[in-house]
Write a sequence for this structure.
């Protein structure tokens, strides 16, 4: 193998090494095994800090071969547990119901990824509070202005009775549009749920003119 290594090239987990002579005055190319390359996995960012109410978090993975991901904490679940090459690990993070920060470790092959989640702000012990009028006059369509007092993320839903249709529009404060009113009085049930899963309810009665 005269002049073995005179030229070399690496791509992914493959390599070719050239030699200008192999003892018989002819050139040769050699393809050594590089399966160990597949073990090199990097995750980015390495140590992120996330808010207490995060629902989803993508973790970028840089890898040459296949990989598997796992979590050491029940409040961090893996949506994408395996893959090949560069990609993303989808993580679902539960809201932190305490005021103390916490940490979890996600492992992708040999690479460790530490997630630090902030504690809930002081004063979030009470659930969301709905502010809306108890009664309103309306025609064939009613509009209800609803605000929710909460430091957390809120999901507001509305359900009208008597065959009427309801839709929630905008952010806090919300607009609840109720259409196809039929009876003299249409109750509309409002439900607010915060990112810790706590709920509050209120009923608004729409009286048809």
């Amino acid at each position: 193998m005269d002049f073995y290594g005179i030229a070399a090239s690496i791509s992914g987990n493959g390599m070719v090494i050239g030699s200008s002579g192999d003892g018989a005055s002819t050139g040769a190319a050699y393809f050594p095994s590089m399966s160990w390359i597949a073990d090199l996995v990097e995750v980015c960012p390495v140590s992120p800090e996330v808010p207490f109410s995060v629902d989803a978090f993508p973790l970028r993975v840089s890898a040459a071969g296949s990989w598997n991901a796992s979590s050491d904490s029940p409040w961090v679940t893996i949506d994408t547990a395996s893959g090949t090459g560069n990609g993303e690990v989808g993580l679902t993070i539960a809201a932190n119901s305490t005021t103390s920060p916490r940490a979890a470790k996600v492992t992708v092959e040999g690479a460790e990824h530490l997630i630090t989640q902030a504690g809930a702000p002081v004063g979030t012990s009470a659930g969301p509070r709905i502010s809306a009028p108890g009664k309103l006059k309306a025609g064939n369509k009613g509009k209800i202005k609803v605000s929710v007092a909460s430091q957390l993320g809120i999901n507001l839903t509305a359900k009208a009775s008597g065959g009427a249709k309801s839709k929630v529009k905008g952010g806090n404060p919300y607009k609840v549009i109720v259409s196809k009113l039929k009876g003299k009085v249409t109750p509309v049930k409002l439900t607010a749920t915060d990112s810790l899963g706590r709920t509050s309810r209120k009923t608004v009665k729409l009286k048809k003119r």
